[in-house]
Write a structure and sequence with these properties.
Layout lengths: L8 E4 L3 H12 L9 E4 L3 H10 L16 E4 L2 H6 L3 E4 L6 H5 L10 E4 L4 E2 L4 E2 H9 L6 E5 L4 H5 L4 E7 L2 H10 L5 E6 L2 H24 L3 H22 L10 H12 L4 H10 L4 H8 L4 H13 L7 H11 L4 H8 L5
Helix pairs in contact: 8-9, 8-10, 8-11, 8-13, 8-14, 11-12, 13-14, 14-15
């Protein structure tokens, strides 16, 4: 599918990242001549607040939307049916539920995943899942990579996005759609690389949080991050080889750094709770949101079973989260495997 400048966009999800993306789209220079962004919002309270006052009461509540530029609906078929481009921005843990009532086919639409996580229970990334469950081909798919915390988007702090599409002309159209004053974009045709980098960095950010919760300092955090970057490169080279990939680019190393260090990072906060002794289930409830690294650690381990990539940090995180291993003992053992 080939996109045009007049292609209509819609966003699925009402969390912080979905809200941030709608803000970018409505602030974009592509909207200067009018048009509206479709927005699928399942929560009735949030939907009504957005329609009447232009605010999401639960996420990024300081952002005020021009109600004339958003078309909020709780009918996913109406939203998807009225769009040429559908941006998925719901947590990966709930994407099946978000799409279960969808009867409008994704055929003849361009679907972009802004979800930095794994579809639980399927051991698949979002684009892989959409291919199997909804017949979406890579030619009609794209990925939005970071580094980009929604909280900084709300504050209009300069942020960079990577738009990955098999067809670079479509990527360029999307850079126009996401061309706000505080956004810079780059393009890529490395869909799998950008998508899995966003998945892997959550695991490494979680490990940094665990270490911080245990009392390790910034010196050790930097060692974890640099070793995590090496693990990411080894995994991607083995599982999704790409000769032109630069894992030092913003969508790879940049996204890893911000997720590992930023106070906005849910994965870092989740890891800190685990490091301080909270049980996984208790930490999940305390977090009040989804730590994508939790699901990612299980899936990456499953995928790596058939590839045998050396991934001691990812293995350590998995053993803590899923096997009940002691965070302190596991991290102490890990220190002997890092360089």
């Amino acid at each position: 599918m080939i996109l045009g400048k007049d292609s209509r966009c819609a966003v699925v999800g009402h969390g912080s990242w979905a809200t941030g993306l709608v803000k970018i789209l409505t602030d974009s220079s592509a909207m200067e001549n009018g048009g509206r962004v479709g927005w699928y919002v399942r929560n009735p309270e949030v939907a009504e607040s957005l329609r009447s006052g232009g605010r999401n009461p639960r996420y990024l509540s300081d952002v005020e939307f021009d109600v004339g530029r958003i078309e909020v609906s709780s009918d996913i078929n109406a939203v998807v049916g009225g769009a040429d481009v559908v941006i998925l921005a719901a947590p990966s843990a709930f994407i099946k539920n978000y799409l279960e009532g969808l009867t409008v086919p994704f055929a003849d639409r361009f679907v972009i995943s802004a979800i930095k996580g794994i579809v639980p229970g399927n051991y698949l990334s979002v684009t892989e899942y959409l291919g199997r469950a909804h017949g979406l081909t890579l030619g009609c798919a794209g990925v939005i990579g970071g580094p980009s915390h929604a909280e900084e988007i709300a504050l209009e702090r300069l942020s960079y996005l990577t738009i990955a599409c098999e067809n670079l002309d479509n990527a360029r159209v999307m850079t126009h759609k996401l061309s706000a004053r505080y956004i810079r974009t780059t393009i890529s045709d490395d869909i799998h690389g950008v998508e899995y980098a966003a998945i892997l960095k959550n695991i490494y950010a979680l490990s940094v949080g665990i270490a911080a919760g245990l009392g390790y300092g910034d010196n050790f955090a930097s060692v974890l991050i640099s070793n995590g970057a090496r693990e990411m490169r080894r995994f991607l080279e083995k599982v999704f080889p790409c000769a032109e990939r630069d894992t030092n680019a913003s969508a790879f190393l940049g996204d890893l750094l911000v997720t590992a260090y930023s106070p906005f990072s849910r994965n870092r906060r989740f890891g800190m709770m685990i490091g301080k002794g909270l049980h996984v289930k208790v930490a999940q409830m305390e977090l009040g949101g989804v730590a994508e690294g939790y699901y990612a650690s299980e899936t990456v381990r499953h995928v790596n079973d058939s590839h045998g990539v050396d991934m001691p940090i990812a293995e350590a995180v998995y053993s803590i989260l899923y096997e009940g291993a002691s965070p302190s003992k596991t991290m102490r053992n890990l220190t002997n495997k890092l360089i």
